[in-house]
Structures
1.
Amino acid sequence: MAEISSNFIHNIIDKDLEDQTYGDRPVYTRFPPEPNGYLHIGHAKSICLNFTTAQKYGGKCNLRYDDTNPVKEDVEYVTSIEEDVRWLGFQWEKRLWASDYFDTMYECALKLIKKGKAYVCDLTADEIKNTRGTLTRPGEESPYRNRTIEENLALFEEMRQGKYANGEKVLRAKIDMASPNINMRDPVIYRIAHAEHHNTGDKWCIYPMYDFAHPIEDAIEEITHSICTLEFEDHRPLYDWVLQELDWPMPPQQIEFARLNLTNTVMSKRYLKALVDDGTVSGWDDPRMPTIAGIRRRGYTPEAVRDFCERIGVAKANSTVDISLLEHCVREDLKEKVESRMVILDPLKVTITNYPEDMTEEMKIENNKENEAMGTRMVPFSRELYVEREDFMEVPAKKYFRLFPGNEVRFKSAYFITCNEVVKDEEGNVVELLCTYDPETRCDSGFEGRKVKGTIHWVDAKTAVPLKVRLYDYLMMEDENGETYINPESEKVVEAFAEPSLKDAKPGERFQFFRKGYYIADSKLFSKDELVFNQIVDLKSSWKK
Ligand code: ATP
Ligand code: MG
């Protein structure tokens, strides 16, 4: 007996393998995006599920573009989809287009007509909708339902030849107008659309509907388990009906799982496209976007996204996952992987008045406190420094152990420093701290004379390099009624000062800014002349197990 997995889909597959439902065929899944936008984190869930399921069983997974709608292909979307799947770490078995199967789908439609299982209907879209019935009332049969097979074949041929305008006629499956499942009440399976298709050009003016096309696509590719989201559950009887009426041997089976919903996130290509088109964001890959391109540019790692998808599991009921879990996975992944640097985001100048004017020392600092193997680096220290403004309080709050007049703190990997005097401008703003250091307390001297409670970081003013750092808050917020609105303060750009080594960063390189969080050199905007960094995630987690 196979072990019961928390992933119910794997339990279904285990049973199918035991029963030899598919003979000796391999487990075969597919990821079927419509190339009408960039993929988002919800798609990442589907990608991970389909590809890792195939991997687990030594099977295969196809990338199949669902292009049964005759819209112009957007090469940008196709390229982005493939880049995203590869970035997540997966490689498809075959890359296919649903439109490659139009001939077969047409043959299948003919087969249904010849079996008396499909008919040409002249009702308008509205009439079809109005005669469909409701959950409590059966639908009404179309007056065209009993056309002869010959008549249907002739009319369908005329539809194909382009004799009719869009919407003038449709092909409907002849199932059951009284079915408790409305999808089974003679659904439309082919419609007329006089439109150019990116793949088939003007060969066709009739196009198959998704519910008819999808099972055929799966069957042709010998998909065994066709995984989709819950909204297709009521369509499954139609999926099965199509393949059964076509006498397809060992037909694939559709399995539904709950789509991923995340707090502070809208996952709809249409919604995200609107944000791009109206300029709310700088593009599909704006680091605030929940697109895979966006989170990649933001600095999230494929490992973190895969870990997240694994942790949330596969559910049968819709729910909303807290985005802080995704952030937690990012932190966990970066913790031992990236080097730390000292960066001051909101600088306050410090002068060590008893430190020699022209002296500079090199202080040795570990690159990653959690991972000794990452070694150390030397960081310059001299008389003038920057510290974070929030590391100083003129009148300290209770339990505030950082800089305030009269208090001594440790400057990370350097000396004990005492704040003596506060310099203010005409408006009374603190502009500089005058401090003294104790030469005895150099961090590598083994000094044990006394202890201090606070440790703060610093950057040497003379050698500091300026950074442009983009700090992020959630792009999408929810008001008290649960309505999503766009946060007008989701991006804040600050001028920061960093230790000199950051000027050698490479675009796409990630760091921990000591005591602050994780940051990435922006893959597009970072250059030698302008060191642009994006905040990936802060250090502290609001997520509780
Ligand atoms: P959107 O409404 O954002 O365009 P879609 O479902 O129409 O989403 P498709 O390109 O048709 O987008 O989806 C490709 C695959 O990704 C489908 O199998 C779909 O079920 C799955 N998918 C889409 N959104 C999610 C989600 N939030 N969680 C899990 N899977 C998803
Ligand atoms: Mg869609």
2.
Amino acid sequence: MANPKAPRVEMPLQNEHERIKNYSEVAIGYTAEMARVEADRCIQCKNPTCEQGCPARVPIKDFIALISQGDFVAAARKIKEQNSLPAVCGRVCPQEEQCEKTCVLIKKWQPVAIGRLERFVADYEREMVGVCPSPVPAPNGQKVAVVGAGPAGITVAGDLVKLGYKVTVFEALHVPGGVLMYGIPEFRLPKAVVQAEIDCLRAMGVEIVCNAIVGATVTVDELFEEGYDAVFLGTGAGLPKFMGIPGEGLNGVYSANEFLTRVNLMKAYQFPEFDTPIRAGQRVAVIGGGNTAMDGLRCARRLPGVKEVHSVYRRSRDEMPARKEEIEHAVEEGIIWHTLCNPLRIIDDGTGWVKGLECIEMELGEPDESGRRRPVEKKGSNFIIECDSVIMAIGQGPNPLIVRTTPGLETNRWNCVVASPDTGVTSREAVYAAGDLITGGTTVIQAIGQGKVAAAGIDEYLRKKRGVA
Ligand code: FAD
Ligand code: SF4
């Protein structure tokens, strides 16, 4: 019997005083009992509006029903019919803006904790029976090259290998996974969870070639010459943006991309046990208000030797684009907030290293084209944040390498590759694209949803090519 009025089952968390001393996962996860109690809050709507809020159209109602029946493995497999990365999405998706926002219960009570349930069943399956590769049909004789092993590339590779294509993934870094591996920290998304998904792809026969930079090691046109029938581009948006203020070239200034890669991928927090060092000093300032900025703040908070971590954001905390949960966790972890505050210059200590950040206070003026009130400077309100390092987390764009080396590939004014929303095809025949490369930085589930569209587009194109209806 559904019990929608019952309070949402809270996620057990690592205590904030303990967790700032380690990199282990903050959210501990539901028990089986907690999952069943939460699943029983779902009223199994005739018209499950929650599913309209999911960019990957996961069968939410059905997987929750399976949890209520106690069949957790079947629930995980039900999700995988639409989304191959449930353990990832259950952890990092902004559910409060998607499926949970459109859950009917929100009108009167709290929405069903769909993300927490998704995470529970995916973890249950991985821990109890292992992530099982799906059955793969006999090869159909056609080959597809997937460029980039982030969520978009992983989705396309998984969908196409299940249709009988021979798929090779080319990844620039030494490990596959994209932002899931190098950007999002271990305490939000354990790398073992991502690795299990990669292992599953390999078990289905996908070949993954690492340290292969398409555009340098090999070009898109050379991939066609090597016999690939289609090329999928999922190279993301890894090119950091800077503000263009004085002092950005000082030692101690990092792009969020470099900082997070050093910490998460290269495990700089365990230097010298791991080779890559990071010199953050005792006081760190992070500029920006998105998920990347929250990850920068929270990683810095956990670094050995760091005593103060400052957040600098030019609007108010309510307007930060980061997930609410990440902001709340950062607050609990003791970040020092400077909202409505804009950086003007980074100050040199006289030896080429950072010693501070000069800022000016802001107030909210008229709404801009995004509808948000535009921050304007308060004259004479300059002040200095004393710090030893500055992390720039103000956004990222697509790397231009592939576009420069692929004639005829159309881009828009944000340097994103233009791709059809219906098929993922670009301005070049047989070249498809999805994910941050076409949107300039959104979410994991968007990259997965668009990847599914591109995989279907590639399949339709290649079926025609081999004369199959
Ligand atoms: P990526 O994940 O960027 O993967 C692209 C891959 O292509 C990378 O592995 C890269 O090395 C490779 N590559 C690039 N160029 C080449 C080349 N020339 N040849 C071969 N390989 C190449 N989204 C959420 O939903 N929730 C979150 O909590 C969240 N937090 C985030 C935190 C951070 C720090 C960042 C940076 C992003 C976050 N996002 C979050 C956004 C999300 O991670 C991205 O939208 C998503 O990863 C995009 O997937 P993708 O496959 O398009 O690109
Ligand atoms: Fe269950 Fe909410 Fe979806 Fe209805 S809208 S099926 S209550 S999760």
